[in-house]
Amino acid sequence: MRALRFSADEIVETIEMVRVERLDIRTVTVGISLFDCVSDDTAMLCERIYNKVTTVAARLTRTSGDIAQEFGLPIINNRVSVTPIALVAGRAEVDGFVRIAQALDRAADTLGIDFIGGFTAHVEKGMTRADQNLIAAIPRALAETRRVCSSVNIGSTKAGLNMDAIAQMGRTIRETAALTAANGSIGCAKLVVFCNAVQDNPFMAGAFHGTGEPEAVVNVGVSGPGVVLRALEQAPEQDFGALANLIKRMAFKITRAGELVGRTASERLGIPFGIVDLSLAPTPAKGDSVARILEAMGLERVGTHGSTAALALLNDAVKKGGAMASSHVGGLSGAFIPVSEDEGMIEAAEHGDISLDKLEAMTAVCSVGLDMIALPGDTPAETLSAIIADEAAIGMINKKTTAVRVIPVAGKKAGDLVEFGGLLGHARIIPVNKRSSARFVNRGGRIPAPLQALNN
Amino acid sequence: MATATTPTTPAAGRAIVTIVGLDRVGIIAGIANALAEANVNILDISQSVMREEFFTMIMMVDLGTSQLGFEEIGRRLKAKGRDLGVQVEIQREDIFNAMHRV
C-alpha cells in the first residue's frame, strides 16, 4: 500500500497492548521550581506556591486528556513535583510547614491531579533547622492533606548513612501511622525514605523537582508489565537469552510510546521535556503485575528461590530495551515491586510465600526498594529504622537508589488484611523479625561513606 | 482552571482509523460516509477478515482538510461505529511510527 506504512499486524499489536494488556502511560509529571516563591512570610510563601503551581501546570490534565485520546493510549495519572520544600521554607516553623503542605494540597485539588510530590528534605549528612522542622511536620502534613507526598533522603553513596535521621524516620513513620489510624494508616503510603534519591523521578510518592533541574520540566513514567507478561507467556520454552531479547523488544516499544507522549506534552504545554522513566509499574489489576512476569519465567510463585535472579534479568532487559528507545532516560528506571499494588505480590503475601527478607534481597537488583508493604501496627520505631538502614545500606554500597515505603498499620497484626483503595491496592500484613534492633539504631552518628564514594 | 475548555483548533496531520467487528454489509460505506461528512480525506484502506468472521479495516486518513477538532471527529466515528455494531478507533499516525519504526 502506498500511504499506509504499517501492516495490519503492527496496528493490531498496538491496539491490543492497550486494550488487552493494559499498556498505559502511568504518569505525566510536571516538575516545577519553587525558588522564586521564597518569602520570610509563610502566608506569602504559601500564596506564591499555590499561584505558581496552578499557573505552570494549568493545562496539564486537559493536555494529557487530549494526547491520550489522539494516540489511543491511556494516561493514568497527572502529577506535579516541586522543589524540596525544606529548601524554600528556611524560616518556617513546624506549623508553617503544615500550612505549606495544605497550600500544595489545594493546588493539586485545583489542577485535578492525584498527587503532588516534594514535601521533601535531604539530610544524608545532617539536618538544617528547616529540615528538622519539615520532618517534624510530616505526620500532620500527611494526615491533614490528601494529595501531598513526602520524601526524605537519609543516605547516599557519597555521604554514607545519617543514622540519626534514620532513627528519627522510624519514629516519624510510627507517628504518621497513628495520625491516620482511622484510614489504615494511609499517611505512610505517601511517605518514602530514600538512599540516593533521584532528582527527576516522575513516580510518586518519591517525586520531587531537583535543584539541578530547569524552571519547569515534563517527565514521563511508562508502564506495561502486562505487555511483557503476554510476550513471555507466548514463549514458554525459550531459554534466558531469548527471554531477555523478548523483554528488550517490548521495553523498546513501550518506551518509544512514552517518549512520544512526553515530547508531545512538552510541546503543547510549552515546558521542556526532561526524561522518560523506564519503569515497569504494576497495578492491582489482573495481568498488570511484575510478580506474574517472574512466575511466567518458571517460578511457582514469586518469593520462592530464583525470584531475585528472575527479577535481575527482567530489570536489566527493560533498561537495555528502553535505553535504546529514548534520547533521555532517567528517574528510577527499573521494575517496581510494590506489594499491595501488584496482584501477584498480593497473592504471594496472602499465602505467606513472600517474606520481608526476600523482598529486601530482590530490591538489590531492581528499582526501588521495600515498597507498599503493610507491617504489624506494633512494629517498634527502632525496627522500622533498622529496616530503613538495611535497605539504605544496599543502595549506598551498590550506588543505586533504594527506598522504604512501609505501613505499620495501626491496630493490625501479621496475617490481617488491610485495604488502601484504588491504585494503592490491598495487602496482608507481613511479619517482621521480633528481635530488637534498638541498641544498634540508637547508637547515633553516621555510617561513613563507603570506599565506593572515593572514585575521583 | 484545568477543566476550562480550550477553543477547538482544527485537527491537522494524519491518523489511522481502525474498525473491528463482525462482518456485515455497509461497514466501509458507513465509516467512509462519516469521514466524508467531516471533510476528512481517506488516503488508503486495507481490510482483512481475521479468524473467519472478524472484520478489520484500517484506514489512513488526512485530517488537514477538516475544519473539525480531533475530539469531534473521534466522537462522530465512534457514534457511527455504534450504529454499525463495530468498534472504531482513531489514533494519530505518530504512535505507530514511534512503536514500530526505528
Rg result of chain A: 21 Å
What is the percentage of strand-forming residues of chain B?
25-35%
Specify the number of helices of chain A. Answer: 15
Q: What share of the residues of chain B lie within helices?
A: 25-40%
Give the topology string of chain B: H per helix, E per strand.
Answer: EHEEHEH
Q: How much of the polypeptide of chain A forms β-strand, as a percent range?
A: 15-25%
Q: Tell me the span between the first and last alpha carbons of chain A.
A: 57 Å
At CATH level 2, the architecture of one domain in chain A is: Alpha-Beta Barrel
What profile does the largest beta sheet of chain A have? 11 strands, mixed
Overall mean pLDDT of chain A: 94
Radius of gyration of chain B: 14 Å
Q: pLDDT average of chain B, as an integer?
A: 85
Extended strand count of chain A: 13
First-last Cα distance of chain B? 38 Å
Report the strand count of chain B: 4
Question: What is the CATH-assigned architecture of chain B?
Answer: 2-Layer Sandwich
What does this structure look like?
The complex is a heterodimer of chains A (456) and B (102). With 456 residues, chain A is of the alpha/beta class. Chain A has a domain at 220-448: Anaerobic Ribonucleotide-triphosphate Reductase Large Chain (Alpha-Beta Barrel), CATH 3.20.70. Chain A has 15 helices and 13 strands. Chain A has helices at 8-19, 42-56, 60-71, 85-88, 94-111, 129-143, 163-179, 225-233, 240-269, 290-296, 307-325, 343-350, 356-363, 381-398, 438-441, and strands at residues 25-32, 75-82, 115-122, 148-156, 160-162, 191-195, 216-222, 273-277, 369-376, 402-409, 417-419, 426-428, 446-447. In chain A, a hairpin with a 6-residue loop joins β11 and β12. The mean pLDDT of chain A is 94. In chain B, α1 (27-37) runs antiparallel to α2. Chain B has a single domain, classed as 2-Layer Sandwich (Alpha-Beta Plaits), CATH 3.30.70. The model of chain B is unreliable at 1-7 (pLDDT under 50). In chain B, 33% of the residues lie in helices and 34% in strands. With 102 residues, chain B is of the alpha+beta class. Chain B starts with 13 loop residues before the first strand and ends with a helix. Chains A and B meet through α1, α3 and α9 of A and β1, β2, β3, α2 and β4 of B.
